[in-house]
Amino acid sequence: MGIVIGVVGPHDLVDDVAATCEEQPGVSALRLDYDHESQAPAIVEAHANAVEGWLFTGIVPYMLARDADMLSRPASFVDYSGATLLSGLVRLQHEGYDVTRLSIDTLAPADVTATFTEAGLPTDQLRTLGYRPEMTSKKAIAFHRRGPGHPVITCLSSVHEALREEMHVLRLAPSVHSVRVALRQLLLTAEGQAQEDAQIALGLIEVDGEDGLLREATALGGTLAGFRGGTHLLVTTRGPLYDATGGFTGLPMLGRLAAGGRVVRVGFGLGRSAAEAESLARRALARARRIGDVAAVLSLRADTDIVLESVTSTPAGEQNLSVLARRVGLSVPTLERLLEARDASGGEPLTTREIAERLAVQQRTARRMLHRLELAGLAERTGNLTSGSSGRPLTLYRLTL
Do residues 98 and 42 share a domain? Predict the structure, then answer.
């Protein structure tokens, strides 16, 4: 089975990077370009459910998406030091420029020094501005303008556009070798994540009554069956269980089931095979019995047992937002803002424009979000509202999440 990689970057780089990715058997690329690197987080948020991994054409869009907490899938970026930087230096030298006197942004100073040293070039007259979270294209532009007029090497299309009429600017483009290195790293990470998330998770459940048990199993993406001695067997995988337990810390279903019965004991086992998972689930249930009438334990390999706290902060019937975010490909903060918009409207339908304004996004981004929610059964169209202009009518949505 193939893997879909979302390639994110400026429009003039995405196609070449994607084409290099698609040289790898089983890899297909979703080309997602932007006009400015600040648009990267919104692009990732809108398309998160369509890919198994992200490859960014540079560190800046990657860091912007990461710092915005949008990376719910494995991600990597193309490193511009090494082969990419060397190819740029060769190009500048062929054009007659002194490559020992440069102003360079984004690349880490240590990486620049290492590349120059390996090439036998001095570094004492280089000016470097390494990437930091607070760095913006405006700061990079100001950094280069403060310099003594050296040629500029930039990794940012916005910097290149701003300075190309003032000074000689070389914008680095990812080398094929650098793209292949980044893709190899991404595929290894994605494969490991997929194998980890696909680990079998078996739950053995002892409960007084069965009310709500099937609903809880469904929320975990699992199936429910009878087991020996009146115990119930819940079969799921690591990914949904990890999300529903807040990273293996608390089990909201424990408190909800306890509200309807005196005894609720749950033992989860996480293993590489069904036999291993069942053995660990038995161990977990035995420990839960020793703890008391209401208890949940997760047993892992290497004799590791985790007691899952009873989480009562989530009201009965309300889905865990992290599970929901994974399901629809949106971030938890976005879902929280959508819930606030729903509550502020008193449950009345909202237009795509109103959603866009409340979330501070473009209308096309709001339409994509609402379409995802609609496909997941968490929003429904109730009609159209004429916008009062020659533009397209505004669709009305009722949020049901």
Answer: no
